[in-house]
Amino acid sequence: MNETLTTNYGSLRGSKADGVTTFRGVPYAAPLSAANRFLPAQLPQPWQGERDATAYGATVTQNPYRAPLDAIFGDARIAGDEQLNLNVWTPDVAGSAPVLVWIHGGAFVRGSGSIPTYDGTSFARNGVVCVTINYRVGALGFLDVGDETANIGIRDQIAALAWVQENISAFGGDPSRVTVAGQSAGAMSIGALLGSPLATGLFEAAILESGAAHHALSRTTARAVSTTLADIVGVELDREAFSAVAVDDLLAAEEALDARLRSTSDPASVREVLLNGMPFSPSIDGSVLPQAPLDAIRQGSASSVRLLVGTTTEENRLFLAPGGAIDRIEDGVLDRVAQSYGLPADASVRDLYQDEQDPTPGATLSALQTDWMFRIPAIRLAEAQHEAGGPPTHMYEFAWKSRAIDGALGAAHSVDIPFFFNTLGTPGAERLTGPDAPQDLADTMHGAWVSFIHGEAPGWEAYTPDQRSVQRFDTATETVIDPRREARLAWDGTR
Questions:
Q1: Which residues contact 419 (CB under 8 A, 6 or more apart)?
Q2: Looking at residue 438, which CATH number applies to its domain?
């Protein structure tokens, strides 16, 4: 069954099933021709007649996942130039429901809004208009040559949010009740949006899952990355020069970039990248990001925005368990990594992160890296928002252990996605969760997210420096106070 509506740019024909109407592949910006691949998004051109919006649109230019993660995430690339598009699930085109805008993850180099586990049907059935977006990634999204148009990927997200403000009422959404949500690089993007003056007023609440506001590159580092990429493809450090590089050559250069950066004769110039493994990230460019996002948030840039922030318990097992790398970690690695993070390279760190049930060096390293990359940044974001006098921030932890890879994945990064989207039965979900994932946990977690999007408390107390309440989602969900307190305290003063 089809349903039509009219946006500011023309009429759309979507598909309707079981009370939910879906519009896919809707352009929020002009197609990416060779001339504007490295330029800020342009407004889409109006179209004549009725546009078919029953199929997903093109994905942004990107490389596929490398092994072993390709076996978990697959390859969802769709060819085409109309890459800056979005998808909408709505319960009632004549309504005025709260809106969820989803920003996907993928380390700022991969991903799309059309991944099956991001299906917004369950949100729509619970009275939420759900929107998933594409934005440019890799060099196309985060090349910084030192000019005034850096952070193209973040600018794309801002353009999509502006489109929502102008058009979502036609889909039955209320533009004054927009929650922006994201996971991993999507959550880090939201950390940047919370600190960006260009995003002010585009949303009233934010959900940051496994990512916060720490991971924005200094402009010096971002320029060093871009200089290295320019050297690989053999062009000047210039946006116009990069636009002349063939797409396949650019993607090949992105694949070669990591190894080139790690072999640099000046590792201090790219230290941020060597630590977090993400050469393409938002940069503090003076415009989109006038300063580090966390500093801006602490000073009140997001003081009117409600926050829901959290992590999984064993984030970094995603990067170590598939392929067995976690079993090849040697004892001395933990000390070196701890020292690079600003922690003492001694037995005290091992004591904090060694698990009695799995005391191996790999599991201990994974726990340490989970805190540095994800948990401590989430806590710092909550603390910064509290310091700025913002609305209550709610903190969560996803602790259910996946059964995938014979249980080796554990409560890893991304395992929680099909739970808060309530999409356990969709293609690809079982590659993250393993067999027989608990539907009641998905119902509980999804319900908390729906409550928050509707403007209600998600079901537990807010997180404050005096009452560090964390909702731990597991087979038995419960509120815990200041989990792993000693580990949290160990990071005070490190960054």
A1: 398, 400, 437, 441, 442, 445, 446, 473
A2: 3.40.50.1820
**E strands, 28-110, where?**
50-52, 85-90, 97-103
Q: Is residue 260 part of a domain?
A: no
Mean pLDDT of the chain: 95
Q: pLDDT above 70 covers what percent of the chain? A: 100
Pair (289, 376) in one structural domain: no
Among candidate residues 114, 184, 281, 402, the one labeled active-site is: 184
Active site residue 215: no
- 477 and 456 in a common domain: yes
The full length of the chain comes to 495
Residue pointed to by tokens 């970690």: 329
Identify which of 61, 66, 65 has the alpha carbon closest to the alpha carbon of residue 78. Answer: 61
Please report which helix (H) or strand (E) contains residue 451, including its range: helix 439-453
Angle ∠(367,395,177) on CA atoms, nearest 5: 135
Given 254, 315, 383, 397, the catalytic residue: 315
DSSP 8-state symbol, 34: G
Average pLDDT over residues 167-188: 98
- CA angle at residue 122 from 400 to 107, to 5 degrees? 55
Q: Same structural domain for residues 296 and 393?
A: no
Tell me the pLDDT tens digit for each residue of 35-45. Answer: 899 999 999 99
Catalytic residue flag (residue 315): yes
Range 317-331 average pLDDT? 95
Q: Evaluate if residue 281 carries a pLDDT over 90.
A: yes
Q: Which domain holds residue 406?
A: 310-490
pLDDT of residue 475: 95
Q: Quickly list DSSP for 309-357.
A: EEEETTTTHHHHSGGGGGGG--HHHHHHHHHHTTS-SSHHHHHHH-BTT
Instruction: Indicate whether 47 and 131 sit together in one domain.
Output: yes
467 and 318 in one domain? Answer: yes
- DSSP 8-state code for residue 118: G
Copy the structure tokens of residue 293. 């996002």
294 and 406 housed in the same domain: no
**Residue 209 DSSP label:** E
Residues paired with 88 in a beta bridge:
23, 131
| Cα dist from 410 to 75, 282, 324, 416, 434, whole Å | 23, 29, 13, 11, 10
Is 11 a catalytic site residue?
no
Active-site residue, from 269, 413, 414, 446: 413
Instruction: Name which of 171, 170, 182 is nearest 132 in CA terms.
Output: 182
